């Protein structure tokens, strides 16, 4: 082999070396590195150290809500409306530990399919005007549903309490989008399709969510996967801080349960 190489012209040897190096640069190892950032971006970030538990599994200390509707059952927060004990207007169990700005919030939920629930964040407890009940809030809501068919699924951002001039469904589950001062919502990409969401969502079971808000950038994760990426570029509408709360929706009787609620300010 050494003798054969000595007989080859220098230009041939040089070309061979270039081909070999180019192959190294475009091989399987390089492809794996190129795909890693995209894969990492679709996966929930590792849980931060020293997360603060917001619920001890025993009582509702640190929370404020309608005592007829909220309780602790089998170590989880249980909210329920019935035909005999309905709610007039959406009502919330509000965490009284203060406002949060940039944060990582993690919890598990399950709920009935007869109605929907939600997790409020960067929201305001409405106390400066008459409301249908004492526990109403206004702000970003991470929708919670026991459904798997787009668009009525868990994970979209709803403008709770926005009224007739509100933004309603600000960003749908599965979207990477922005909201601009001029032109409103602009969708940049799709994060998950219908079939993949059906595989991800655990109907009639516990599901894990992560809500991560940093500045005007918000991300929602379901069972470890990114399902919403939203940037609120409208300074007249974006919210920078507020309370955390859990929802029971008015209308048809329903129940929702929550556990392992923990928070980290960023």
Describe this structure in words.
There is one protein chain. By secondary structure, this protein is an alpha+beta fold. The protein folds into two domains: 2-41, no CATH class; 53-265, Jelly Rolls. 16% of the residues lie in helices and 39% in strands. The protein is built from four helices and 17 strands. The strands form two sheets. Strands 1, 3, 4, 6, 11, 12, 13, 14, 15 and 17 form a ten-stranded mixed sheet that branches. Strands 2-5-16-7-8-9-10 form a seven-stranded antiparallel sheet, with no helix packed on it. The longest helix is centred in the N-terminal third of the chain and has 16 residues, at 10-25. The protein is globular and about 45 Å long. Mean pLDDT is 89; it is low at 1-40.
What value does the average pLDDT take? 89
Q: Tell me the domain tally.
A: 2
The number of distinct β-strands equals 17
Query: Quick one: CATH superfamily of the largest domain?
Result: Exo-inulinase, domain 1
Order of helices and strands: HHHEEEEEEEEEEEEHEEEEE
| Helix content, binned percent | 10-25%
Shape category: globular
Instruction: Extract low-pLDDT stretches.
Output: 1-40
- The value of Rg in angstroms is 25 Å
Task: Please give the largest β-sheet.
Answer: 10 strands, mixed
CATH class of the largest domain: Mainly Beta
